[in-house]
């Protein structure tokens, strides 16, 4: 079985120029259009375990392409919004571990992978089961997700009232990871934490570099050049 990258959620985010402000809302449900920053001309800047990471989003027909990049890390995800949820169609992932060691993978699914249902509210739970294809290999994949409570989250970009989402991803190739994300309506993804419990590429990275946990935190919003 070839090494494969962790399912990261990618960093699907919408934004406004509210950087540094406290953001509080009374409503409890989230709509996909609140945090998919398509063609905004804005780059989201995160402080991450890979150093500073930049994320951009563009519209490509009925699909949304997110592209995240750091000095030694690239992640491109194709997303689709339906009435009942946000889905991942596939990803391309690249990681440079050492000067001459590079890992990359292209991942697709037998059907669109449910990232989260819509509209999204605290207390909701969901499950997706399907197959994952990567460089000629096939694995069974199970995703169990839930929307937890709202909580105040402090980031380098400000303090926000966010909804917390947790997903557990298990693969028949012995991969298991827990992804926790914090979303703010009108701003998007402000923080993410990925705990590596299984094998695959990220399991190898954990063993080599000690990356048992990977984190992203919103640092800045910048106009794209």
Could you explain how this protein is built, in words?
The chain has a 12-stranded antiparallel β-barrel with strand order 1-2-3-4-5-6-7-8-9-10-11-12. By secondary structure, the protein is mostly beta strands. It is globular. A hairpin with a 2-residue loop joins β7 (125-134) and β8 (137-155). The protein is built from 1 helix and 12 strands, in the order βββββββββββαβ. It has one domain (32-223): Beta Barrel (YmcC-like fold), CATH 2.40.360. The N and C termini lie far apart (41 Å). Mean pLDDT is 77; it is low at 1-30.
Distance between the termini: 41 Å
Spans with pLDDT under 50 lasting ≥5 residues?
1-30
Number of helices: 1
Number-wise, the strands total: 12
CATH topology: YmcC-like fold
Elements, N to C (H/E): EEEEEEEEEEEHE
* Overall tally of domains: 1
Mean pLDDT: 77
Question: What CATH architecture label applies?
Answer: Beta Barrel
What is the CATH class designation? Mainly Beta
Q: Can you tell me the overall shape?
A: globular
Q: What does the oligomeric state look like here? A: single chain
Beta-strand percent range: over 45%
How many strands, what sense, and barrel or not for the largest sheet?
A: 12 strands, antiparallel, barrel
Helix content: under 10%
Which structural class matches the secondary elements? mainly beta
Q: Largest beta sheet: what is the strand line-up?
A: 1-2-3-4-5-6-7-8-9-10-11-12
């Amino acid at each position: 079985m070839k090494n494969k990258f962790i399912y990261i959620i990618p960093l699907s985010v919408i934004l406004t120029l509210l950087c540094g402000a406290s953001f509080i809302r009374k409503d409890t449900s989230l709509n996909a259009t609140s945090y998919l920053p398509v063609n905004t001309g804005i780059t989201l800047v995160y402080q991450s375990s890979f150093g500073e990471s930049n994320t951009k989003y563009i519209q490509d027909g009925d699909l949304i392409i997110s592209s995240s990049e750091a000095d030694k890390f690239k992640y491109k995800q194709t997303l689709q919004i339906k009435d009942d949820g946000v889905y991942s169609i596939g990803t391309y992932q690249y990681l440079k571990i050492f000067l001459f060691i590079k890992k990359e993978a292209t991942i697709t699914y037998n059907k669109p992978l449910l990232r989260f249902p819509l509209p999204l509210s605290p207390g909701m739970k969901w499950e997706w089961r399907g197959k994952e294809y990567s460089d000629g290999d096939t694995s069974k994949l199970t995703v169990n997700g839930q929307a937890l409570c709202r909580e105040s989250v402090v980031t380098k970009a400000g303090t926000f009232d966010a909804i917390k989402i947790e997903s557990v991803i298990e693969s028949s190739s012995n991969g298991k990871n827990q992804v926790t994300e914090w979303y703010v309506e009108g701003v998007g993804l402000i923080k993410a934490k990925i705990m590596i419990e299984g094998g695959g590429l990220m399991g190898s990275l954990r063993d080599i570099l000690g990356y048992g946990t990977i984190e992203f935190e919103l640092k800045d919003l910048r106009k794209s050049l």
